[in-house]
Amino acid sequence: MERPVRVRFAPSPTGPLHIGGVRTALYNYLFARQNGGKMILRIEDTDQTRFVPGAEQYIIEALTWLGIEFDEGVHIGGPFGPYRQSDRKPMYREYADQLIRDGWAYYAFDKPEALEAKRKEFESQKKTFQYDCNTRSEMENSLSLPEDEVQRRIESGEPYVVRFKFPAHTEITVHDLIRGDVTMNSDLLDDKVLFKSDGMPTYHLANIVDDHTMEISHVIRGEEWLPSAPLHVMLYKAFGWEDTMPHFAHLPLLLKPEGNGKLSKRDGDRLGFPVFPLDWHDPKSGELSSGYREKGYMPAAVVNILALLGWNPGTEQEILSMEELIKLFNIEHISKSGAKFNVEKAKWFNHEYLQMESDEAIADMFEPQLKAHNITASRDYVVKVCGMMKERLNFPSELWDTCCYFFEAPTEYDPAAIKKRWKPGMTTHMNKIIEILETVPFEYEKLHTAILDEYIVGNQLNMGQIMNSLRLAVVGKTVGPDMLTLVMVLGKDETIKRVRRAIEVIGEVEN
Ligand code: GLU
Prior knowledge:
With 511 residues, the protein is mainly alpha-helical. 44% of the residues lie in helices and 10% in strands. The protein has five domains: 6-76 and 207-255, Rossmann fold, CATH 3.40.50.620; 90-195, Glutamyl-tRNA Synthetase, domain 3; 265-356, Glutamyl-trna Synthetase, Domain 2 (Glutamyl-tRNA Synthetase, domain 2, Orthogonal Bundle), CATH 1.10.1160; 357-402; 409-511, Arc Repressor Mutant, subunit A (Orthogonal Bundle), CATH 1.10.10. It has helices at 19-34, 55-66, 89-101, 112-124, 147-155, 203-213, 229-239, 265-271, 292-295, 299-307, 322-328, 343-355, 359-372, 379-389, 399-403, 415-421, 426-439, 444-457, 463-475, 483-490, 492-506, and strands at residues 6-9, 38-41, 72-73, 105-108, 161-164, 171-176, 180-185, 193-195, 218-222, 247-251, 254-255, 280-281, 288-289, 339-340. The protein has a three-stranded parallel beta sheet. α1 links the parallel β1 and β2. The chain is elongated, with a radius of gyration of 33 Å. The chain binds glutamic acid. Residues 10-12, 44, 203, 207, 219, 221, 225 line the site of glutamic acid.
C-alpha cells in the first residue's frame, strides 16, 4: 500500500540558498500539494564547521516570498519535531550503536595525520586511497584491532568516528524515479563516516534516520546527491527499514547559460543575473550577492522560471501559475539532463508577469522612485502613466527611465536625433504646431487631423522628420508611446511649454 505523501526540503544552513535549491524546494512543494501530502522544512546543520549565521532565516524568508509553504518545519513545528538536526542530536547515537551491534558499522580511530599519510602513499603509486573493504584491515579500527584494545581505547576517551561497513563486491541498485535503476558496486564506495568524534552524526546518518522517523515517502533532491544514494539505500537495509524506504528522485543540475557546468555564483556576477532568491550580505566578508527579489523579479515569475528549468508540462504552455503547476507537475516529465539557465527568457517571464499586475499595483512600485526624484504627481496621473507604459517594462526598476518625461520636461536633447531629424525650417514647423495646439480643440482626433493630415500631409511635408522633432522637443529623445497620446496625457500647456523651450534651445539649424 502506498504511504501518505510526505516530502521534505532539507537544506544545510551554509550560506544563501542557491536557486537550484529553491527549485528543489519548489518541486517538493508541487508534488506534496498535488498529492494532498505534507511538505516539511528540515534544517540539516550537523556540520557545525560550515554553519553560517542568518542562513536559516534567509531560507525561510526566501521560500515564504515565493509562496512555497510548509506544513511542518523548523519555523512552525509539527508532530515529528524537532526539525533542526542540532536539536535532534541526542537521538542519533543509538542508531549508530545499533549499526555497530549488527555488524554494519565499526569504530575507527585513525588520526587525521594517519589518513593523510595513507592518501599520500597511494598518490605516490598513482592510486587513490579509499577507506573500504580492501584497505580497512590496514587501518586502526574495531575490525582490525583486538576487542579488548578497542574497549580500552574507547574507555580512555580516545577520539573515534563510526564508519559504515560496506559489504564487499555487492551490486547496489538505487531505483530513481527520473533515471530508472542506477547500480553501483560496493567496491567503488568509501566506508563513509556516520558519526563524528564531536558527537554529531554526519549528514548521511542524520538524513536517513530523520527521513525514516519523519515518515518521508519521497526524497526529491539535487543530482549531486546521487553518488550518496547507494549508501543511503544500504543504510535502509542495515536498519531493517527497507519496507518503508522513500522513493528517490534526483533532479538534473542547473547549468550555466552556455551549458557547460553547474550554474555558480560567479556566473551570476559575470552575466549580471542573480543566482539567489534574495539579496545576501555575507556576514564574514560583507560581500553582497544580489537576489531576484531586489532585482525586481515577481515571485510568481521566479516560480514559473524555475518550474520549467528541468521540467515541462508536455504542452507549449509557458506561463503557468502555482495552481496550474500543482495540477500539471509530474516526476515523469523531469528531464535527466541538466537544464540551461537562460537570462533573456527569465526577463521575458518577468515582463509577462508584470503585465498581469494592475495599473494601481505598478503605480505602487513607481511611487518610491518618484519620491526619490522629488516628483509630486496626482495618483490618477501616475496610475494612467503606468497603465500606458507597463508593456515596455521588464522590471519595476526601469519605471523612472521609461516614464520620467511624463513628470519632468527634458533638459537636454539627444544630439544624434537633432542631427537626424531637426532639419532647417524646423522651428517654423514647431511654431505652427504650437499654433494648432493653441487653436484647435484639445482632442486626439481633432489634433490628429490638424497636425498630421492637414498640416503635414496637406503641405507634402516629411512626416517622419516633423513628428520625430516634436517628440524630441517633448521627450528629449526619440522614444515613447504614440505621439498624440503622449500630448493628450501631458496636456496642452505642458506640451506647448516644452515645444517652445526646444525651439529656444535647439534653435534654427543650418544644413
Ligand atoms: N542537506 C542536504 C543539502 O544541503 C540535503 C540533501 C537531501 O535532500 O538529502 O542539500
